Amino acid sequence: MSEHGPAGAGASRRGVGGGRSRSRTRGAAARTGSGDGARTGDGPGGSARSPQADAAPGGQDGPGLTRGALTQDFARYLDFQRGLSRHTVRAYTGDLDALLTFLGAGPDQEADVSAVLAVLSLADLRAWLADQAATGHSRATMARRGATIRTFSTWAHRRGLLGSDVAVRLRSPRADNRLPTVLSQDQARQVMEVAGQAARGDRPLSVRDHAILEILYASGIRVSELVGLDRADLDPSRRTLQVVGKGDKDRVVPYGLPAARALSRWLAVRGRLAGPGSGDAVFLGARGGRIDPRTVRQVVHRATAAAGVPDLGPHGLRHSAATHVLSGGADLRSVQEILGHSSLATTQRYTHVTPERLRTAYAQAFPRA
Question: Which residue ranges form the domains of the chain, and what is each CATH number?
Answer without folding.
Answer: 31-158 (no CATH), 185-365 (1.10.443.10)
